[in-house]
Amino acid sequence: MKKLMLAAFLCLLSINSYSAKRVIQLVNHQYEGVKQWLPGTIIVNQGDDVEIHLINKKGIHGFRIKAFNIEETVTSKKVKKVTFKASKKGIHKIDCQMHGAHVGGQLIIQ
Ligand SMILES: [Cu+2]
């Protein structure tokens, strides 16, 4: 019985530390004049291969995550794909390099 419990515990540990491919869709949205990417918070695990699909409904916006040297320009009516390895744990800022007043978001790597 103890061996079975140990095996189950080790199995749970391996599931928790499992890194995977994460595909996340973000949509640029404007509400009462405030522009933002939704969802504003992305949570992934360290080691995940992250693929973000950026959908911009109107105009041109930037998408920047300085911690991963990502800086993209996203035009409307085209899906821009951003890929990176979530290698650094922490809370990383997401912002728009084109519009200072654009509400930023955060990437949480746990
Ligand atoms: Cu913008």
Descriptive terms for the model:
110 residues; 4-stranded mixed sheet; 3-stranded mixed sheet; mainly beta; binds copper (II) ion; 14% helix
Can you list the strand order of the major beta sheet?
Answer: 2-1-4-7
Return the CATH class: Mainly Beta
Number of helices: 1
Provide the number of structural domains: 1
The major pleated sheet works out as: 4 strands, mixed
Bound molecules: copper (II) ion
Helix content: 10-25%
Rounded to an integer, what's the Rg over CA atoms?
17 Å
CATH architecture: Sandwich
The arrangement of helices and strands along the chain is: HEEEEEEEEE
Report on the architecture of this protein:
The chain is mainly beta. It has one domain (about 20-110): Immunoglobulin-like. It has 1 helix and 9 strands, in the order αβββββββββ. The strands form 3 sheets. A 4-stranded mixed sheet has the order 2-1-4-7, with no helix packed on it. The radius of gyration is 17 Å and the shape is elongated. The structure holds copper (II) ion (CU).
Concise overview:
The chain is mainly beta. The chain has one domain: Cupredoxins -  blue copper proteins (Immunoglobulin-like).
Write the layout of secondary structure elements.
Elements (H helix, E strand, L loop, with lengths): L1 H15 L4 E11 L2 E5 L2 E4 L4 E8 L3 E6 L4 E6 L3 E7 L4 E5 L10 E5 L1
Parallel strand pairs: 1-4, 3-9
Antiparallel strand pairs: 1-2, 4-7, 5-6, 8-9
Copper (II) ion binds next to strand 5.
